[in-house]
Amino acid sequence: MKSVLVTGANRGLGYGMVKFLLKNDKVENVFATCRNVSEELKSFSHEHKKLHILTLDVTNYETLDDVAVQIKKVVGNRGLNVLINNAGVSTRFTKLNLVKADQLLENLTVNTIAPILLTKALVPLLRQAAVTNSAEPIGAQKAAVINMSSILGSIAQNDQGGFYPYRCSKAALNAATKSMSIDLKKDEILVASIHPGWVKTDMGGKNAPLDVDTSVSGIFKTIDNLSEKDTGKFFQYDGSELPW
């Protein structure tokens, strides 16, 4: 992975991913997007020349093409190796009698529509990376889209009900992953969904059993091991495959 883009990089899992990638000497460029840049992220940009912070609200669709332009200025004809669609919101604890239309719309907008449209905008850069690294096997070394999903998006494992906004948005994202994997197969761009586990973040809460570092190291180990046979599949952070 010479160049990686992580959305929602200001805190939580995304921030942990950026820190992890900056420690990897093989990664040449880390693009971190967020709506508001934290002081911590700013300090990293002073310490690491390979970190490029891009201000982005993923729901402001008109700016997505501009993000692609900014990335191209840095990577040139080498393209973007990995896009990690991590930015997300959660309105999870919602039973049927309490669910509201605005909750459903917000979750679908951020968790499903935004990743699809950002991927669309960045396909030319991903395709360029696949061409540039044509000698590499299909995977993150060539070009890949990683959609950060959730076990709550698994229809097969839903045995509790509820969580309508979040479940529906992540199930829809998983459907998008499958379609992307088919549409981008000819370009040799791998696409997969990954569940990060229940992680101690603002979204996951204090009772979550996993810390960010454990989840992130597992995620990148899994990404590194993905190959052509894994495109269009759904994985847990530890590499085990999950049912749709």
Could you explain how this protein is built, in words?
The chain has 244 residues and is of the alpha/beta class. It has a single domain (3-236), classed as Rossmann fold (3-Layer(aba) Sandwich), CATH 3.40.50.720. Helix content is 40%, strand content 14%. The protein is built from six helices and seven strands. Strands 3-2-1-4-5-6-7 form a seven-stranded parallel β-sheet, with helices on both faces. The chain starts with a strand and ends in an 8-residue tail after the last strand. Belongs to the short-chain dehydrogenases/reductases (SDR) family. GO terms for molecular function: carbonyl reductase (NADPH) activity. This is C-factor.
